[in-house]
C-alpha cells in the first residue's frame, strides 16, 4: 500500500502530558510528524490537535485507534487532502533597507499575494498564507536577498464534511 499525507484531527480535554503521549505513539511506529498544531476547538473546553504525517491507510487507521485509547481523547479523525480545506501561514523577516532599495522584493510580495504586517527601521515582516508549496516558493524567491528569520505554522484544516464531534459530546 502506498504512503500518502494524512491530516489527523484529535479532539481532547486540555491536560498536561497528552502531547507527549500522542508524539510517543508516532515515535513507536517510526512515523515522522510533518506538522503539528494545537488550539482550542469550536467546542467549549475542548482542544484540537491537527497533525499531518505520511503513512499508509492501514497505518493511519491503527494510529487513530491508538490515539483514541488515550483517556483525554474524545475523538480522532483522519482525512486525505481531498477531504479537507487546509492552509499554513509563514512569516519572513527581511532587512528594511531592501524593501526600498530592491523594487524586485515589492514585486515578489505583490505577485505571491503576501502582505507586509510590520515595518520598522531595521526590518519588515511578510506574511504568506496558503499551501506549503506556496510558502516554500516565496521562501526561495526571498532567500537570495537574505532572510533574517523564517517561521511557518503547522497545517490547520477544516473538513469538507461534518465530523459530528458535537453530537458525540452530547452523548457523553
Describe the protein's architecture and organization:
The chain is α+β, with helices and mostly antiparallel strands and 172 residues long. Helix content is 32%, strand content 40%. The chain is built from 6 helices and 9 strands, in the order E-H-E-E-H-E-E-H-H-E-E-H-E-E-H. The longest helix has 12 residues, at 57-68. The chain is elongated and about 60 Å long. The relative contact order is 0.20.
CA radius of gyration: 19 Å
Shape: elongated
Low-confidence stretches at least 5 residues in length (pLDDT < 50)? none
Cα distance spanning the termini: 36 Å
What is the helix/strand order? EHEEHEEHHEEHEEH
Which structural category fits the helices and strands? alpha+beta
Helix count, per DSSP?
6
Mean pLDDT over the residues = 92
Range of helix content: 25-40%
Q: For the report, how would you describe the main beta sheet? A: 5 strands, antiparallel
Name the features.
elongated, 32% helix, 40% strand, 6 helices, five-stranded antiparallel sheet, single chain, four-stranded antiparallel sheet, alpha+beta, 172 residues
Outline the secondary-structure elements.
Elements: E1 4-12, H1 18-28, E2 33-40, E3 47-55, H2 57-68, E4 73-79, E5 84-95, H3 96-101, H4 103-111, E6 115-119, E7 123-130, H5 132-142, E8 147-152, E9 156-159, H6 165-170
Antiparallel strand pairs: 1-3, 1-4, 2-3, 5-7, 5-8, 5-9, 6-7
Amino acid at each position: 500500500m502506498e504512503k500518502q499525507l494524512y491530516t489527523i484531527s484529535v479532539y481532547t480535554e486540555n491536560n498536561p502530558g497528552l502531547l507527549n503521549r500522542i508524539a510517543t505513539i508516532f515515535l513507536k511506529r517510526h512515523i515522522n510528524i510533518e506538522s503539528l498544531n494545537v488550539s482550542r476547538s469550536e467546542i467549549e473546553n475542548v482542544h484540537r490537535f491537527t497533525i499531518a504525517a505520511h503513512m499508509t491507510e492501514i497505518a493511519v487507521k491503527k494510529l487513530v485507534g491508538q490515539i483514541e485509547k488515550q483517556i483525554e481523547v474524545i475523538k480522532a479523525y483522519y482525512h486525505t487532502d481531498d477531504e479537507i480545506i487546509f492552509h499554513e501561514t509563514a512569516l519572513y523577516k527581511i532587512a528594511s533597507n531592501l524593501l526600498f532599495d530592491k523594487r524586485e522584493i515589492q514585486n515578489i510580495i505583490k505577485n505571491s499575494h503576501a502582505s507586509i504586517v510590520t515595518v520598522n527601521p531595521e526590518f519588515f515582516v511578510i506574511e504568506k498564507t496558503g499551501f506549503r508549496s506556496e510558502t516554500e516558493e516565496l521562501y526561495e524567491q526571498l532567500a537570495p536577498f537574505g532572510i533574517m528569520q523564517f517561521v511557518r505554522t503547522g497545517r490547520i484544516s477544516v473538513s469538507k464534511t461534518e465530523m459530528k464531534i458535537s453530537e458525540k459530546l452530547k452523548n457523553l
